[in-house]
Design brief:
The protein is globular. By secondary structure, the protein is mainly alpha-helical. The protein folds into 2 domains: 110 residues, Orthogonal Bundle (Arc Repressor Mutant, subunit A), CATH 1.10.10; 29 residues. It has a two-stranded antiparallel sheet.
Length: 189
């Protein structure tokens, strides 16, 4: 047995020797790959995170130049179109966005004249929010594009497959909520 093999940790993968013309020389200390490494193409939390980030980034890149709103703004606008005059805390709960992101976005939307806060005497916190007429107009233009993007994402899916996908996602959401209530982790990404 070679001296390097004798000094190797049990279970360590032997380092590959560099071959003539090899692009990568062996790394000192052998492989750093875990025998418990996840398959990132089949680990559902990572896959969902990847998809969500890609869908959000591409939507933001499309919506911001055309309508002046990013994806966080759009999520708030879309919710306010369904539920006007809600508190910022409701926006956080319904969208999964953190308070800081909601606060920054709402401030920008108010400044842009897309959202208004209900005036309440004596307090400045948790004032209900709604879209302005200008905000409703932006919503109605963006929603047409959002629906067209959804159709592109689901191209090739039958009506039955679409219904199954929504069912699977709803069931997964219920599991995530159950994990959160039970103090567990949502599975990591």
């Amino acid at each position: 047995m070679k001296a390097t093999e004798q000094n190797r940790e049990p279970g360590a993968v032997p380092a590959r020797a560099a071959t003539k013309g090899s692009a990568k020389p062996p790394r000192p200390g052998g492989s750093r790959r875990s025998k418990h490494a996840l398959n990132m193409e089949t680990f559902v939390p990572a896959y969902l995170t990847f998809l969500a980030q890609k869908v959000s980034a591409s939507a933001s890149a499309l919506y911001r130049p055309r309508f002046g709103v990013g994806i966080t703004d759009w999520r708030i606008i879309a919710l306010l179109a369904v539920e006007p005059w809600i508190a910022p805390s409701r926006i956080c709960d319904a969208t999964g966005l953190d308070k800081g992101a909601v606060s920054r976005s709402v401030s920008g939307l108010i400044e842009a004249g897309l959202v208004e806060q209900q005036a309440e005497s004596g307090t400045q916190r948790r004032l209900p929010l709604a879209l302005t007429p200008k905000g409703l107009g932006v919503h109605d233009r963006v929603v047409k594009l959002a629906i067209a993007r959804q159709e592109q994402l689901l191209a090739g899916f039958s009506a039955e497959e679409r219904a199954l996908l929504i069912d699977f996602l709803a069931r997964m959401r219920a599991q995530v909520e159950a994990l959160a209530k039970g103090g567990g982790d949502s599975g990591g990404d």
